[in-house]
Amino acid sequence: MYNIKVFVVDDHAIVREGIKAMFKNAPDMELVGEAENGDETIEKLKYMSPDVILLDIVMPGINGIQLTKLIKQAYPHIQIILLSMEITGQLIGNGIGAGASGYLPKDSSKEILFEAIKKVKSGDKFFAESISEVVFDEFFKNSVRGDRRGGVGFATKISDREMEVLKLIASGKSNREVADELFISIRTVDAHRNHIMKKIDARNTADLVKYAIKNKLIELFD
Prior knowledge:
This is Response regulator transcription factor. Keywords: DNA-binding, Phosphoprotein, Transcription, Transcription regulation. By secondary structure, this protein is an alpha/beta fold. The chain is built from 10 helices and 6 strands. It folds into 2 domains: about 120 residues, 3-Layer(aba) Sandwich (Rossmann fold); about 80 residues, Arc Repressor Mutant, subunit A (Orthogonal Bundle), CATH 1.10.10.
């Protein structure tokens, strides 16, 4: 049976040990390596080829955002999930801009972690619900100020219902789950999704977040 190969990077040994414990008897995946900093990670990736890297953001030396950029430039096939105790629009935006495929709080459950790993390995994006709430709350607040900031003015383009659908889709929910939560039909969800995509010229869920960053709805910092 094929296993997803996972590598973990965190400067705290206790965090790495906790993550390793989660992978004991994990179905369809295995932890193949670990590192405590960016330099060690870069060196080990010369002879290892993980599918997914779980990467701490706040580390001495090369931080997680900088390391994400370096890894994606050298190994674009490796998917990266950022882990952090801090959840802000700036950090989330930086992570997405650097090429991360997911972002999880460090207190996420094993079930959420494994779901995220499987999703990013399949080419999807995964953001914990709390992450999506931060991103799209900021998205909505700034959209109201869009005209004053020279932005696009999303509040006049996306309806309240479409915003609800948008936030749920971005949190990783399927069309069926969105329909059940909002008490609407799957066909209606499809219609809302298509309208949103056309309005902001997006192709997929990742484009929704990237578009918010591009239009300065989420600030990026080097």
